[in-house]
Each structure stands twice: as C-alpha cells, then as structure tokens.
Specification:
Helix content is 36%, strand content 32%. It is an alpha+beta fold and 243 residues long. The strands form 4 sheets. Strands 1, 2, 9, 10 and 11 form a 5-stranded antiparallel β-sheet that branches. Strands 3-8 form a two-stranded antiparallel ribbon. It is elongated and about 110 Å long. It starts with 23 loop residues before the first strand and ends in a 5-residue tail after the last helix.
Length: 243
C-alpha cells in the first residue's frame, strides 16, 4: 500500500519474518597491531568465515564494521572527448572484462559438472592495462583515459566497542541446532585460528549463549527443589513413607 507513496527510484521495501534461529548468538571483535581495517576485514571475510562455516550448526557468519575493497575507475572527460569515446562505451567493455557467470555443464570423469566462466583481473594495475576498443577501430589502454585505484568502498556502517571502532563478526546458528553445541564448536575453531594467527586478538563482545545455559540450570534446580518439597510435604501430612 505504501509503494505508491514512495519515490519512483527507491528500491522496493522488503518485509521478512524474523526467525529466532537467525538471530546472532555470539559476536566477536578482531584486532591486530600490524593489520589495518582493510586487512582485518579481509581476514574476517576470508579466513574466519570459511573456518566457522565448517562448524556443525553454524548457519551464517556476518562481518560488522570494517571496510570493503573497491576498485575505482575515474574517467578523464577531456581525454574521452578528444578520443571520441563515452563513459557508456568504457562501462560496457568493463562489464565484459569483469565477468563471473555460469558457463553451462560438462562431463568430467563420467559425471556431469557445472562450469563457471571467470573473466576477471586481480589488481588495479591489471585493470588499467586492459585494452579498450574505440568506435573508430583504435585501441587504447584504460589507464590512458582513467585513473584506476585500488581503494575501499564508502563506509555506510560502523561497529564500536567501548566507544572505539572495531572489526567484528556475528555468528548465527542454523535451524534445529542448539546454541550451546554451536558455541562449543565455534570456540574450539577460534582457538585453532588464534593458534595459527598469534598476532590476531579475538575478543568476545556479546554472548547470548550463557543466558540459555543459565536458564536451563535454573530450571533444573527448581525442578529438584520442587520434587524434594513435594516429598517432604506429603511425608509431613501422611507420615507414610510409601505415600
């Protein structure tokens, strides 16, 4: 109903049911004396995420804070005009260069395997050296009409711990998995990561697992107390050990 009242260029609003199993149960922060925010963010996205997703019961690992790598291509309008090229021409060819898509299927060893088409460059220098075809048949290098830089994207979110910016990650369990078992597996995996990377400091920021354990222990204690009181009251009133 509200879509007609929103601006036309606004993305459609998303309405989703919040599932308790999808809420983060553990939040950690990472710090290092020799890594900046970009390196720490990549460490979380690559090393930490891959390791923790292998733990039974972990449904999602999401980074909070930090930065995301981004390659900027800043075109020079005067050079484009002199060569008779447009930004649309450059953009179209860049999309053809940077492709990572499905490439169909093939038979490998008697079984059918999916194939990926990977046509990407690994650095800003490689991208700047790419040939760009002009409409008149001439070819130029991208860095002749643009400044290509390897930088970070605009930061739209931040994570703070005790008022200081940090790079962290949240762990959510999968449906049907128990919080306590997931937390036990996560802590064991983090111990391995800390042993493999001694320069990285991992700090637990939020923990929603311990309250679950405390509630369970409290419920069991109340059950034992209730059973003992019931036996005592029946014995006091009836004076009969059989009852």
């Amino acid at each position: 109903r509200v879509r007609s009242d929103l601006p036309a260029d606004l993305r459609d609003p998303v309405i989703a049911k919040m599932e308790l199993s999808g809420m983060p149960i553990l939040t950690y922060t990472v710090a290092s004396q020799r890594m900046d925010d970009e390196a720490l963010s990549w460490f979380v996205d690559n090393t930490v995420t891959k390791g923790l997703l292998g733990v039974r019961g972990v449904g999602k690992v999401a980074r909070v804070g930090g930065v995301t790598r981004e390659v900027h291509v800043e075109l020079d309008p005067l050079r484009l005009q002199a060569l008779g090229a447009t930004a649309a021409d450059i953009s179209r060819q860049l999309r053809q260069i940077q492709q990572d898509a499905s490439g169909g299927r093939t038979d490998v060893g008697g079984t059918e395997q999916s194939v990926r088409t990977i046509a990407t460059v690994h650095s800003a220098q490689e991208l700047g050296a790419m040939d760009i075809a002009l409409s008149d048949g001439r070819r130029i290098r991208l860095d002749q009409v643009a400044r290509v830089s390897d930088t970070v994207a605009e930061q739209r979110s931040a994570a703070l711990l005790n008022g200081k910016p940090v790079v962290g990650f949240e762990i959510s369990r999968s449906r049907g998995a128990g919080e306590i078992d997931v937390a036990r597996g996560v802590r064991a995996e983090l111990d391995k990561l800390k042993a493999a990377h001694p320069d990285i400091t991992v700090t637990e920021a939020f923990n929603f697992v311990d309250p679950v354990q405390e509630n369970f222990d409290g419920s069991m204690t109340l059950m034992y107390e209730g059973a003992a009181l019931a036996v005592l009251v029946v014995w006091l009133f009836l004076r009969d050990w059989r009852a």
